[in-house]
Design a protein that fits this description.
By secondary structure, the protein is an alpha/beta fold. It contains 16 helices and 18 strands. It has four domains: 68 residues; 124 residues, no CATH class; 168 residues, Rossmann fold (3-Layer(aba) Sandwich); 100 residues, Rossmann fold. The strands form five sheets. It has a six-stranded mixed beta sheet, with helices on both faces. Helix 12 links the parallel strand 11 and strand 12.
Length: 514
């Protein structure tokens, strides 16, 4: 780098021009120095460029984040959430049904499905989750049906979910969830609004749920019940205005110990408003034996046996106890002998047997109680059998005076046909009238529960948004007027024992139209 200076110093010039040359050399020296300094700076900058670029990027990111935070319009996020209105008043566009159904504006407002406070909600059978930011971003997100927990959302994952319908765990969201055309600033504003909803809900807990129980290996009647509830009309028989039906969460259970575990978890969550039309046929004893389950109201349970004296059952069709007592309402039979045969798996069988014995004795019967699966088949020496167990087929000749009384839970058509063919007079008890009007066809149990369930669902008050409002909601439900389906079913919220007995329908076997 010294070469240009040395060369400039050795140049010969005339004397008259030395002053100018001197000044020229000084200028040259200055220029050369500038060149040296510039060259050194170029080398330094070249070597430092990666670090400078990284620092600049970090600074830019920090500045952008700060600017976004500082410039996010909270009112914009609220408008998108409440009304589907974006920046500059534009109508937000969303595509539901996997992208094939375009909607806009109020039709895609978040509050429609997720509730005014973002705590969740739903329409019909679609359950919309809690989307307040603390629920979306918590380390262990909501669990899917298979038990896997979804990872938390960050801002980028949330944007992908809104635009592409892909959840934080990479699973496609429900087709009912629209895919939105939101700009970056609109997403920032929406995140800010969800954060404000989290702050407002501080400590509010999980959104209350309405839960139905179904077995994993569900029989046809259970699946028929589930499909019927999924397709409930949104207006009742009295031609009321169209209503939004509450969403139901389906919890599947396996064996008795699995049901016990799930009931304990549901009762302990503090977020279950009620169990709605749970299918408990064959699982009544497991339910009755779970103390935690008794803390949950059970609306319209589909059960053939009683759920225990401590269960909080509302809008229940007459159970096993009421049906058995209705069968004992025949005229007095002084001196005749009655055998009460009871399945050993019936919950509270001792207390039930005592109630039935007391009622029968008052009617003048001489009573014996039999416990066991084969307690019905031996008919010798008795005039009537009240079968609270599967009747099987008769194993000995039957007296033509014998009466066999069977509640709905233990009706086995082939066995009853055999008893009838042997000469017994068979009578059955049902929790609802099996026929409507002059139609001789029987209404299957699942169809009866669906009809009552859809009517009840349409009448329920809106689910509360916070767990601390569950008790008030339950009181509202208990105070609802009786369900009346024409002149077919009249079902109060909480009927006393005598009223339940009066609602039992008795019919001779074989019934017409079965």
């Amino acid at each position: 780098m010294a070469v240009p200076i040395d060369a400039a110093a050795s140049v010969r010039v005339p004397p008259k021009r030395r002053a100018r040359a001197c000044r020229s050399r000084v200028a040259s020296l200055r220029n050369a120095s500038a060149v040296v300094i510039a060259a050194v700076l170029i080398v330094i900058v070249t070597l430092a460029m990666p670090a400078i670029a990284q620092t600049a990027a970090q600074t830019t990111t920090q500045t952008t984040t700060q600017t976004t935070t500082q410039t996010t319009d909270p009112a914009l996020g609220r408008r998108i959430f409440d009304a589907g209105v974006g920046r500059d008043g534009r109508q937000v566009i969303g595509r539901a049904a996997g992208g094939s159904l375009p909607m806009q504006g109020g039709a895609v407002a978040c509050a429609n499905c997720h509730g005014a406070n973002g705590g969740g909600g739903g329409e019909g059978w679609i359950e919309a989750p809690d989307i307040r930011w603390f629920a979306l971003s918590k380390p262990y997100g909501a669990r899917r049906a298979g038990g896997d927990a979804r990872p938390p959302y960050d801002r980028a994952g949330f944007a992908r979910a809104l635009r592409s319908g892909i959840a934080a765990d990479g699973v496609a969201l429900d087709p009912a969830m629209p895919r939105f055309d939101l700009a970056e600033d609109e997403i920032d504003a929406l995140v800010a609004h969800l954060q404000s909803l989290s702050d407002a809900a501080a400590g509010g807990g999980e959104r209350p749920l309405l839960v139905t129980l179904m077995p994993h290996s569900a029989p046809a009647a259970a699946e028929r019940l589930l499909r019927g509830l999924q397709t409930c009309p949104t207006a009742g028989a009295s031609a009321r205005a169209v209503q939004t039906l509450p969403a139901l969460r389906v919890i599947r259970y396996g064996a008795a110990d699995d049901l016990d575990t799930r009931l304990t978890a549901l009762a302990g969550s503090g977020s279950v408003a009620a169990l709605f039309a749970p299918y408990l046929v064959g699982a009544e004893a497991a339910f009755a034996g779970n103390d935690a389950a008794h803390r949950l109201p059970v609306l319209l349970p589909m059960a053939m046996r009683d759920l225990g004296d401590d269960a909080q059952v509302l809008f229940a069709l007459p159970g096993l106890g009421a049906q058995a007592q209705a069968l004992l309402s025949a005229p007095e039979r002084r001196g005749e002998r009655l055998a009460i045969a009871i399945d050993p798996e019936i919950a509270g069988r001792e207390a039930l047997a005592q109630r039935l014995r007391t009622r029968a004795v008052r009617k003048g019967w001489e009573v014996e109680v039999r416990i066991g699966a084969d307690a019905v088949s031996m008919s010798a020496g008795v005039d009537a059998i009240l079968a609270l167990t599967g009747p099987g087929e008769p194993v000995a000749p039957v007296s033509p005076r014998l009466r066999l009384w069977v509640p709905a839970a233990f009706v086995r058509p082939a066995a009853l046909d055999a008893w009838r063919a042997a000469g017994a007079r068979v009578r059955i008890a049902l929790p609802y009238p099996p026929r409507v009007g002059g139609d001789p066809r029987w209404i299957p149990p699942a169809d009866a529960w669906v009809a009552a369930g859809c009517e009840l669902m349409a009448r329920l008050p809106p689910l509360p948004q916070r767990p601390d409002a569950i008790d008030a909601w339950r009181r509202e439900v208990a105070a609802l007027a009786p369900l009346r389906l024409g002149d077919w079913i009249d079902l109060p919220a909480d009927a006393d024992a005598d009223a339940a007995i009066r609602r039992v329908h008795l019919d001779d076997w074989p019934p017409d139209g079965r």
